[in-house]
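== Sequence, structure tokens ==
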Amino acid sequence: MSRTVIHGGLVITASDEIHADVLIEGGRVVALAAHGTDAATGWSAERRIDATGKYVIPGGVDAHTHMEMPFGGTLASDTFETGSRAAAWGGTTTFIDFAIQPRGGSLREGLDTWHEKADARCAVDYAFHMIMSDVNASSLKEMDKLVSLGISSFKLFTAYPGVFLSDDGQILRAMQQAASNGGLVMTHAENGLAIDVLVEQALARGERDPRYHGEVRKALLEAEATHRVIRLSQVAGAPVYVVHVSAQEAVAELARARDEGLPVFGETCPQYLFLSTDNLAEPDFEGAKYVCSTPLRPEEHQAALWRGLRTNDLQVVSTDHCPFCFKGQKELGRDDFSKIPNGLPGVENRMDLLHQAVVDGHISRRRWIEIACAAPARMFGLYPKKGTIAPGADADIVVYDPRAEQIMSAETHHMNVDYSAYEGKRVTGQVETVLSRGVPVIENRAYVGHAGHGAYVPRGTCQYTD
């Protein structure tokens, strides 16, 4: 069995920063030892990676992606092959995508379809959540089976009437089922019925530009739905995880519930931390590039999100990576903002943007690793196999250069999309080498991985509620 030693770097986990060498064998971390000690100098290995002056961090865990997702008559432009490769380039070694229950079909049917899309195509490891778009007696019963198969989280929507929306009764039933089987209900919290009224009224007034997407999807309607799903989860006696939190009013609802001691969790995404309604208002339809739901908010909301990440009222930063090309896809809504496919590319940018947040003083280095690696792994039953560097953990490890500078651009990114949401943004820090289960995928800024290396990972239940 081949052995690898990563030597000379600063190992950063959610709990520690130590100058240590890392010994890898059989795809797992075997030992850590302080630089220069007899233990470290005595290790023999076929491969040695010099990390002097670099960080040695766990591979990122992106708990929210949508590869090849059907939306509004088109498909997200990243396949599992291209999207997983881009993830690796950005230092993410595990992603959790969303399988979708077809309306009128079973959960298993949706899961099988997504397994077929991903099987033997991924460069890094992956897992699945389940979107429930048809909550009924049969699909509720199926939830138990899926938990036993390692699909332990279920997403329900208070938005998108006629496509994904579940009513309060259906959400309550799913939460009750999750309370009994250990599953975690995730919610897209926006009042979709009210939003549809506002969309119709805006279009009737001739308001068709991308910026109106943000104006009709009001922060108060995100806060209202967040409050509602929290109270439903309280009635059900179940935990709830609110995805892509964007508004300060929604953060306040989460903070209040957590202060009450409720098992309520929230994620936000880089786009809400670094972009704003100013982007949605860019002229010549450029704002369409930034249409996603929940929408980008005015810049003043960012302070509440950063504070929530520091105080742990928000636990996770995921990407909600759901890319659509500007040409031919975003353009579907050129005359009607409600027809612009919702979603942004970001799976490749997350680790670097969050390191920039360390540089800017928003978060600490350990908190960077917590929100990007350890917390998502714990939240979705992957820890300590994923999300840390410790004996027994998978050797998903990134050698990260904290001083390298880069300019984000569609010219240089590896996502299969024709624009960057962060075009021209200068950031400090860059991935240098990436190991997935001990195997190099990125080596000295060159891709050496292959489709099919990435394996499906069944998950346990949420480790914050066990």
